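Subgroup meeting minutes
Present: P.N., E.W., G.H.
Scribe: E.W.

1. P.N. recapped why we're keeping a running log of single-chain structure predictions: easier to compare across weeks, and new members can see raw inputs and outputs side by side.
2. G.H. added today's entry (380 aa).
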Amino acid sequence: MALPITQIDALNTPVDGTRFSSVKLEDGYYAAAYRGTDDDGFITTYSYDGDFDNITAISTLEHETSVQQNAPCSLIKLDDTHLVLSYSGVDTDGFVKTFSINASHVVTQIDVLEFETNYLNDTKLVKIDDTHFACAYAGDGSDGFVSTFSVDGSFDNIAVIDTLEFETVRAWGIDMILYDTQHLIVGYTDNDSDSWLKSISFDSSYDNLTVESSIEPEYVYGEHTAIAKLSDGWIAYTISTASKGWMYAMKVTGYSISKYAGAVITIVAISNTSLVAIDSTHAILAYSGSSNDGYITTFFFDPDDNYRPAIESDLEYDTSLGYYNSLIELGSDDTPKTYYALSYQGKVLAVTNGINKTFSIPYQAPQPSTDNGAPFMLLV
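Output recorded in log:
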């Protein structure tokens, strides 16, 4: 059964925005980091009502007044009142900041660490626990790095624990997930525009980062990586070749990753991807597609057919522009439906601007999981 996608509300950002990264706070609130006016760095908090309607901007902090480079930033929450942000700032150096959010949802900076003094481009944060997180990024020479960090009990005193160079030539279009408590999975594109997934472990002290395994899912061309964990043993993985967008089911056994079933998303290249798992057999993807318009697509991963993905629903959410998507789940209700917020760069009356939208899709219970058959790739 299809999962139709319905737009609920839309609101422009308080200042012209691009390069978004969003995170849900407690129920009824979320925050978005972005590059805004004069290339400065901003974080805005938003509220929405019980129907996931009436998006309202509450407070905006201009946290970087020098320059936030035109590169992805990454925002995560350590708890409902504390955030971490990584971004490329002055001299294209890499910075990590912590922030607090008070009861009025006003954001205040706590600490800042310049952890990369040569170069930082793509960056992706993941939370490990309330006082530890990891950051994957393209650093010096555009090589791929991942670092683990700690903060103290007051979310202050950011410190690097360990750093691993996992790619020595080029790592672009980086995405990363925390697969389990001591296991990261990083996706990226190398110097030949081939795509890679790597499993990286760390010990109980968040130290000794080690590449445990790697797979090159797309040998010819694969960019605009996005990863989401479906369940223990399975991840959803999307890339774009030169002429098609692809969704894959990838099986994870220990630290080993295998490519199983794949399906074509579109017959044109895609970009600006943001992928969220709905449950263990469904995922939702926001992306730029034909003519750079904005699209959202839901997928079903069939557990009786090696989790082969199939498109369930499509929505062209912006017919002018859909860049720099950041999609987050807001919650569900007893309808039952699940609800999502999307922050992206669109166009309003032919002028680019940051836009926030909320969406609903009916909830469909995950299908029973089986594991049969050999690894399979669909070729078209």
